[in-house]
Amino acid sequence: MRAIFWFRSDLRLHDHPGLVAAAEADELLLIFLWPRQRPWCNTQGLGEQRERFITESLLALHEDLQPLGQKLLVLQGSPELVIPDLVRDYSIDAVHASQCAGSYETRALRVLRERLDVPVLEHAGNTLFDAADVAALCPELPESFSPFRRKVEKHLHPASPSRDLPQLPPPPAVSFHQIPRTPIKPPLGLPLRGGSSAGQRRLGQFLESGAVRQYKDTRNCLDPLEGSSTLSPWLSLGSISAREVAAAVREHEAKQGANESTYWLVFELLWREYFFYRALRDGVALFRHGGRAGAVSRCTFEPRNFARWCAGDTNFPLINALMHQLVSTGWMSNRGRQIAASCLVHDLGIDWRYGAAFFEKHLIDYDVGSNYGNWQYIAGVGADPRGGRAFNIEKQTAQYDPDGVFTAKWDGNRPKQPMYVTDAADWPITPTTP
Fold this sequence. Notes:
By secondary structure, this protein is mainly alpha-helical. It has 18 helices and 5 strands. Helix 7 runs parallel beside helix 10, helix 10 (242-256) runs antiparallel to helix 11 and helix 15 packs antiparallel against helix 16 (368-379). The radius of gyration is 22 Å and the shape is globular.
């Protein structure tokens, strides 16, 4: 029996139920299809830091596979076209993949099931709870996070997942292509490398250094290395698992004691969990201006203002610094993302989806559910029961960059220029829903 395992957002070998199931085959072809960002909301392609981090993660996975007698086949193209060709050319008997949120990801498996005469099997994704457990605990997924958290968190009892590598059958006779190395280097201000080993080292460092014990107080620092766990890039690609992180926190609490900060890291994992299942439920509504409820709001698309926001050339020094940081490093703190999103939506009056697409292009920790879910939250068409969050930029600057150190570091002090004001009713721009 020959099988394909299609890696998606699960670039690891440990704590991997889908890979274990696929390994029961006699021969196993391991593939990854390079992500494509279709032209959407004035953006296209991947930012260089996001592309670098993905490439490093693939190279690391390929190296981890070699001692097991396996290789990774990295291909370009639509899964609906590429995978049927592989099934035909190599007489594949089953296709395996882990569950991913997002309408494209869900649609791809549905189309494969329609086109193929072999089973297409979907396994548990990189989540704290299996889909069946969430369905049992929350038959109707709540519209906001807090009711979801109250229903599920008391059932979270993560056991430490095994880090033993699975026994993998050999691949079929396939011509494997060398994965090209990227010439792009990680930025000096955020030297994060892709791959499971790098993610596990960062997790251990964050816990063993005691930084986790101040996490609640430091997580909103605009400089990531001053307070953030910075685990999200590896979580987004599945190089480390959410269960692994939660179990490591519990082990730390058992040895060092729990406090509000150790709880808060798990709390953030629950937010990630909520956005995952919300993306599954909402489907294409995740990309609609009014969200699942079809909320109506006045907005515009003033291309000059949007271009200035993307380039960090606005009249708001903190926003400029945040956008320069994003493009240069592929990263922005959680607080920074909220401030930058609020500026685009509430100060410039621009459709939130343009900002979400720009973040998708550049973030090394891009995750479809968390990214679009958080933008909906700020815009008031998603999980926020208060109907949106508008941040006072001057107040946020005074609180998070009172001495202007961050703004100066990222060259935020640009000369002020006229911003263009347009009546939103004159600009009924509605991007095509993907």
